[in-house]
DNA sequence: AAAGCGGGGCG
DNA sequence: CGCCCAGCTTT
């Protein structure tokens, strides 16, 4: 099959468009630095620019360079990451910084092979670091580029299929120029993010319109093919809101890997267990006034989590010393200082707000003025 | 409620 | 390899 456009011409259209309309003032473009490119690329995995921006700014304020990050504690990194999701990214980020310090004299290696051995860096992120950070000829294939290419060539089949993925990488590499790779790479991401959007693409503003196969056959939004859908299983748990006499709640640190790994969360109790017995056995709490406070559903990529919040008043607490790192009492007003998973923070805040409006909040009654 | 967004890790 | 895992935002 012949290509609708020579790579040289494809690049010219894309680069000309970028010069006029591309994004040149994103927070990670302020200073040309592989550290900033890397950090932003990790944050931008599965996460959009508008969400990432404030996180990125807080992050570089606290860790302005690679060596400061490499010296950080995991808790500090997770606190900055809390709410962004996919917390393995934060763990890998720290490990990667440490490896760069120890094995690479604090510099990013400038080749795909070595970059991809670093935790959290796969083929696309490695390409982004080389192209955006070092202006070297390397291709990326993120969601934006996938959308542009599947439409431009009207490639059917879900991009997660290995055959489709392989084809897309071939195209990505074919079009990536040797010169001006940084500008081209940013241009392709901008094109995908601003013009070749998932729904309602702005084809009338697209520099590739006249050669785009999907446009010319009438249905750009048909590409890329959707992921085969699956019914998600439902998992149910109770989350315990244990309130002591200082009106603090008990938080528990999650195990280092798995869901919300390393973040602070509420004590979790199987849905068929008795919350009162469970609190005593696992959290050393003598409780009373058990109240079913609220129900919420949080959906992960692979299951629904139905959460039943149970509020209990704690009268006595007898913790063994060894547990003091895993469980802490925390003032509800200071939640932003702890790395809490987003839905847990939301749940607590909703309960806390209802304290002032209903009689079913965390403290069971409106506070005295 | 469903879709979208990369990479790690396992068998 | 193919398959599972992970968490938000947007639509």
TrEMBL record:
Binds 1 [4Fe-4S] cluster. One of its GO terms (biological process) is mismatch repair. Its cofactor is [4Fe-4S] cluster. SMART domains: ENDO3c, FES. The keyword Iron-sulfur applies. InterPro entries: A/G_AdeGlyc_MutY (IPR005760), DNA_glycosylase (IPR011257), Endonuclease-III-like_CS2 (IPR004036), Endonuclease3_FeS-loop_motif (IPR003651), HhH-GPD_domain (IPR003265), HhH_base_excis_C (IPR023170), HhH_motif (IPR000445), MIG/MutY (IPR044298). PROSITE patterns: ENDONUCLEASE_III_2. Residues 43-194 form the HhH-GPD domain. The keyword Nucleotide-binding does not apply. It catalyses: Hydrolyzes free adenine bases from 7,8-dihydro-8-oxoguanine:adenine mismatched double-stranded DNA, leaving an apurinic site. Keywords: 4Fe-4S, DNA damage, DNA repair, Glycosidase, Hydrolase, Iron, Iron-sulfur, Metal-binding. It is an enzyme of class 3 (hydrolase). Its EC number is 3.2.2.31. One of its GO terms (molecular function) is oxidized purine DNA binding. NCBIfam families: mutY, PRK10880.1. Adenine glycosylase active on G-A mispairs. MutY also corrects error-prone DNA synthesis past GO lesions which are due to the oxidatively damaged form of guanine: 7,8-dihydro-8-oxoguanine (8-oxo-dGTP). Belongs to the Nth/MutY family. This is Adenine DNA glycosylase.
